[in-house]
Amino acid sequence: MTPGARLAMAAEILDAVLEGTAAEKALTGWARKSRYAGSKDRAAVRDHVFDALRCMRSYAALGGAMTGRGLTIGLLRAEGTDPATLFTGEGHCPAPLTEAEETAGAAPAPGAEAGDMPDWIWPLVTQSLGDQAEAVAECLRHRAPVQIRANLSRHDSAAVIAMLAEEGITAAPGPLAPSAIEVSEGARRLTGTRAFADGVFEMQDAASQAVCATIPLKDGQRLLDYCAGGGGKTLALAARAQLDLFAHDATPERMQDLPVRAERAGVPVTLVDGSDLPGLAPFDVVLCDVPCSGSGSWRRAPEGKWRLTADRLDDLQNIQGQILSDVADLVAPDGLLAYATCSLLAEENRDRIDAFIAGNPGWQVQADHRWTPLDGGDGFYLALLRRI
Ligand SMILES: C[S@@+](CC[C@H](N)C(=O)[O-])C[C@H]1O[C@@H](n2cnc3c(N)ncnc32)[C@H](O)[C@@H]1O
């Protein structure tokens, strides 16, 4: 495919996304029916689509329309390319710009439009992040680095970097945690490497690793990962100490890969059903990596930025409060409740903790931490609550 044809395809997929189709579904549907597209074409179309989703408002402003075509015109203008060079109408390239399109388009207005945020959420972002808001929004407009976690129970990160180099993958020490590694070349081949099959590393963002590295742990403790999902944090915690480790999720199917991942990493994890928890309590540490807006990871999942609504954010806050009160009784006296989100919003972070403490006098905040994409990984929040 020519560069112009790739853009035309991206515009078509973006139209489907604007009509409500999930980007991954639209991309898979296109790839299935486009056998002519090689792997480089697929990667390029995917990159265009995700770049446009990260920068949807500013590209629509520059391109003069919130359509697939407008977004791709905006994308080119943003990178300083004259759209006329690719919108030629030749072969499978998009049709030349009309006179109206030539003159449409303007620099995005400062604030929510330039920061590529919905208007309703911008005040929440600025209140939560203060003078970092614009820089964080700018960071979220760009691709996230590829980061992995060295399984420190097996090898240090320097050894993992050397093993990856032998398999043709270029990596260097990453930010925020001793286990973090950033991959600069060969990232698409990571999960096909021998090192991955041997449990030497896992795919994991550096801030997610930092959350796990910040929770104080001791050998022999009983730890419950209450919202385990695929088990990314379960495994990162398991690598830090000899734990009696339990994983739970309200949707147990989300944990279906966890036994295989745990075996690959060489760590024992017991999957538990909610009804078994009272009999297994108390736990020394309970981690609640609660469902949230995902605003800290909007670089990786930019659709979330546009699909989130104020009603959904309200629902999430209720779920977060409910999870805190559900797990409180599972924590041993003097034990720790670790509350984590990948959100940048105070409404899902410190506000939830303050509300919990106000209604539960037997608890105190031992520490809380916030990471933003300016620190080098996704945005995350962690509060450590001690049962007194
Ligand atoms: C942010 S994800 C967890 C990600 C996971 N900890 C990781 O590091 O890969 C939140 C998880 O909470 C689960 N969840 C939602 N509501 C819950 C509830 N009331 N109790 C327990 N888990 C819940 C979801 O099914 C989802 O898997």
Strand-pairing-aware structural class: alpha/beta
Helix content: 40-55%
- Give the biggest sheet: 7 strands, mixed
Give the total of beta strands: 11
Strand line-up across the major sheet? 7-6-5-8-9-11-10
CATH architecture of the largest domain: 3-Layer(aba) Sandwich
CATH class of the largest domain: Alpha Beta
Return the average pLDDT rounded to an integer. 97
So, the CATH homologous superfamily of the largest domain? Vaccinia Virus protein VP39
SSE succession: HHHHHHHHEHEEHEHEHEHEHEHHEHEE
| Number of self-contained structural domains | 3
The shape is globular
**C-alpha-based Rg, rounded:** 23 Å
Proportion of residues in β-strands: 15-25%
CATH topology of the largest domain: Rossmann fold
What molecules are bound to this protein? S-adenosylmethionine
**Count of helical stretches:** 17
Distance between the termini: 64 Å
Low-confidence stretches: none
